Amino acid sequence: MGTLRITDAAENNLDHIDLELPLGQWVAVTGPSGSGKTSLVFDTIVAESQRRYLATLSARARHYLGKVGRARVGSVEGLPVCVAIGQRAIAGHARSTVGTLTGTVDLLRLLFARAAVDPGGEALSRSHFSFNTPLGACSNCQGLGVADRVEPSLLIADPSLSIRDGALVPTLANGYTVYSQVTLDVMEEICVAHGFSVHTPWSQMTEVQRDVILYGTKKLKVAFGKHSIESRMRWEGITARPREEGYYRGLVPVIAQTLQRSRNPGVLRFVRSSACDACGGTRLARPGREARLGDSTLPSLLAVAVEDLEAPLLALPKGPVWEALRPSVLSRITRMRRLGLGHLALDRLSTSLSGGEAQRIRLVAQLVAGLSGMLFALDEPTLGLHPESQPAMAEVLDELVDAGNTLLVVEHDPDMVRYAQHVVAVGPGAGPHGGKIVFDGPTAPDPLGGPPGVCATRKHATAEIVLRGATLHNLEHAELRVRLGALNVVWVRRGRARARWSLARCFPR
Ligand SMILES: [Zn+2]
Fold it and tell me: Is the dihedral angle over the CA atoms 108, 113, 114, 115 positive or is it negative?
């Protein structure tokens, strides 16, 4: 399939590296933390691919996508289109879920639109099952599935303090309470009118007095209104002038009104979210929520953990639509389970996934997309994965290679490195002590014949342990030299020898 040639790569700490990598293979890029693995894979190869892609877009599109600087590299030849599947949390929004990312929900929506029965007798379309469409979304929560409620207890920072000294969370150093829309002097007027002071500890205020602060009062008209951030910071006491006469509205109503405009982090600190009353958190309007296929509704299927989903799926009534869609649905479910994602339900929000989970979800999405001729760059895909799931991860990555793609996998875990076909080790140290290629070659065809020469780069190592005539299991009078004070790497042949072989087994306790 040709080669990817990189000349004079000098991004970050890379030491003017020249490198030739086989395309159509699984290439592991390993080395100590900070050695330059990420600089090589993501900051050079992926960045160059993205830059070239952006260069093909219109100036208008480029403006929106932002500028990608040229990587510090002499040349990159033979570069396929890259897909970077990193550890970043998915920059999703409240409408992106495990099910939408893997395409599983689309298939189930299609199935329900064609085959489900609406108890209300309505003719169903795919839009009825999508909370991203006006037709499908619950009108109460606009398809978000949650109802927000300002929770007054979340506003209290320390009940032993007074309002002036910071009893409430949104208190500035000068005593101004954000969202109160009154200066500290005006706040004092309000307090005095109700028989207390801004200097009264919150815990010594009566229930009625606290309610005045939280929910407002119509006992007196005050100088009330929104203030700019600058003026809030400036106030030291009596300086602010009234903007308008009005009633103090209280913190909770003002925060609730702000929340309606935007669910920004500032106000979400004081909000408890619970399932929307109207749709029970399913986000769907009545037809999409209640339409049944056998015993299942779409929301009921989406709420089940993927590892428990096979039974209800196989219990769906047979029919031509389901027969056609079933293999695609089950292959997605199976791959998610194999990658240790079985604990997730399809309605799980993508923004709540860990970096490792998000990366594996993206892998499933790429696999089912069936792309070929691409270069996939991955960042420690086994991070957070149970060691038992590593062989399954290796099979999934093999599938991508078998489909005609190239894999560049940044990897620390030697157990995973040994599954690769080609290894590049960046090192020898971190930062300015790294940035060199200390090994570049195929994984050895035989674990004991011709190991790659990593040891040779560590000249200071002298003493060694020599193992002769080892016959445990399938070893045939093997000889092994382990250098002390050096990085020793044991490679395993690919294919049949997926079985683990390690030094530990040569020295049974
Ligand atoms: Zn709702």
Answer: positive
Residue 421 belongs to what domain range? 3-88+354-443
Output the CA 132–ligand 1 centroid distance in Å: 12
pTM of full prediction above 0.85? no
Report the chain's mean pLDDT, rounded to a whole number.
84
Share of the chain above pLDDT 90, in %: 50
- Residue 172 alpha carbon to ligand 1 centre in Å: 36
Bridge partners, 289 (sequence order): none
pLDDT digits (tens, 9 = 90+) for 371-415: 889 999 999 888 878 888 888 889 989 999 999 999 999 998 888
CA of 137 from ligand 1 middle (Å) equals 8
Residue whose pair of structure tokens reads 């099979």 in the numeric block: 395
Q: How far is the CA of 290 from the centre of ligand 1 (A)?
A: 13
Please indicate, yes or no, whether residues 302 and 384 belong to a single structural domain of this protein: no
Q: Which of 179, 157, 152, 177 is nearest to 272 (CA)?
A: 152
Number of domains in the chain: 4
Confidence of residue 58 (pLDDT cuts 50, 70, 90): confident
Torsion sign (Cα): 332, 333, 339, 344: positive
How far is the centre of ligand 1, averaged over its atoms, from the C-alpha of 148 (Å)? 11
Cα-to-centroid distance, 131 and ligand 1 (Å):
9
Residue 143 CA to ligand 1 center (angstroms) comes to 6
Ligand 1 geometric centre to CA of 352 (Å): 20
Give the C-alpha distances (Å, rounded to integers) separating 53 from 50, 85, 87, 229, 365: 5, 17, 22, 42, 21
Looking at the structure, tell me whether residues 102 and 167 fall in a common domain: no
Average pLDDT over residues 294-311: 95
Tokens of 408: 């560049």
The CA 311 to ligand 1 mean position distance, Å, reads 28
Q: Is residue 172 part of a domain?
A: yes
> In this predicted structure, what is the pLDDT of residue 472?
79
Q: What is the pLDDT of residue 187?
A: 94
Ligand 1 centroid distance, CA of 293 (Å)? 22
- pLDDT at 95 (0 to 100): 75
Terminal alpha carbon distance of the chain: 46
Phi-psi category of residue 93: left, alpha or beta, with phi > 0 → left and psi -120 to 50 → alpha: beta
Co-location of 140 and 282 in the same domain: yes
Unique residue bearing structure tokens 């049974």: 508
212 and 156 share a domain?
Answer: yes
